[in-house]
Structure formats: structure tokens, C-alpha cells
Amino acid sequence: MQTDAQKAEKHTWFEDLQGYLFGTSMCAFALVMLRSMGLITGQTAGLAILISYVSGWPFGWVFFVVNLPFYWFGYKRMGKVFVGKTFINVALISVLSEWFPTMLAFETLTPWFGAIMVGFMTGAGLMAIFRHGGSLGGLGILALYMQDATGIKAGYVQLAFDACLFAVAFFFMPLPQVLYSLLGAVVVNLVIAINHRRDRYIAM
User: Fold this and answer.
1) Which DSSP string corresponds to 48-66?
2) Spatial distance between the Cα atoms of 190 and 154, rounded to a whole number of angstroms
3) pTM of the full structure
4) 94-98 own/partner pairs: CB under 8 Å, 24+ apart
5) How far is CA 127 from the centre of its chain?
6) pLDDT tens digits for 147-191?
7) Residues with Cβ < 8 Å from 178, sequence gap 6 or more?
8) Which end of the chain is flanked by fewer CB atoms within 10 Å, N or C?
9) Integer Cα distance of 195 and 127 in angstroms
């Protein structure tokens, strides 16, 4: 007898495409808000934002380049289809995050409110990407690879990276900005933890 997961139909290419466009648009819009407030986030995107702040290089290009080394780990653990989908999403984020600021600007954005909304939008965008079998690459792939290789849980690897990232941020950013950034990162992780349930959402 087939399980619900076995009976579930796979997404079509068009459904995947709209999922990626929605997800990356939400994440890119959130990144525009984040950068307008001078905040960062966790994971690879946070590293790329911090590098962008310090160097003055465009975030989109930095994010694209920072992700390049991780595709090999993704290929080894999850295969070429996953890597291809991830590459598309990373490329979309890189382009959209540089394009969106040419079409909008924020006159007033209260940091605590902005951080929470960034967390909500990023979480929603990531959920759409995850449910269509993609990712935004980066540290999440490496963490899963290390979990397979060493037995260290992926969540601990990601937590350790974020702890180091925010510790470094204290040397380059004012304390309130780092704390608001932490608030946004907590909201993102709560959205993913509560809503990313494969036992409830089985279509892939």
C-alpha cells in the first residue's frame, strides 16, 4: 500500500519556477530592507552582507561568489539536480537583490519592526524554495555534509558559524545594529522550525 508521500505528485517545472521566483523575490526584498537598516543576518547571506559592508563591494556579486565553493558539497551529498536548483536560486537572489533597490527606497523603517518583518519575509521565501526542492546553498549544504562525515549535527555547525559571524560583526557594527540583526535571525529560524514539516507538507 502506498504512503501519502508516495502518492504525492511532483511539482511541475512551472510550479518550481513560480516557487523559486516567489521565494527569491521575498528573500531579496527582505535583504533590501536589511541593508537599508545596516543590519546583517545569519548563514552565508550574513557573511556576504558583512563583507559587502566592510569592502564596499556589491552584495549580489559577493553572495554569488561566496556560494561557489559549496556546490561541490551539494553535488556529493544531494546530486546534480539539487545543485542545479540551488544555483538558479542563488543567481536569482544575486540579481534581484541588486535590482530591487533601483525601484524602491525606505524613508522610515524602525529597526526592531524591520528586523521582525525581514525575518517573516525571509522565512516565507525560504519555505517556498525548500518545498520545491531547492536551497540558497552555502553553509547549510556544508553542515549536512559534515554531519554525514563526522556525526556532528548540522544544526550545531550552523549555530557555531552564526555565533562566530555575529561575534565578528561586533567589531564592525554598532551594538544596537548587531542586536537587531540577532532578532531578525531568531525570527527566521522560528519560522523555519515551526513550518518546515515534511510530515505535513509532502509534495516535492
Assistant:
1) HHHHHHHH---HHHHHHHH
2) 16
3) 0.83
4) 94/60, 94/61, 94/63, 94/64, 95/60, 96/24, 96/25, 96/28, 97/28, 97/31, 97/32, 97/59, 97/60, 97/63, 98/58, 98/59, 98/60, 98/61
5) 10
6) 777 777 766 777 888 889 999 999 999 999 999 999 998 898 888
7) 40, 166, 169, 170
8) N
9) 8
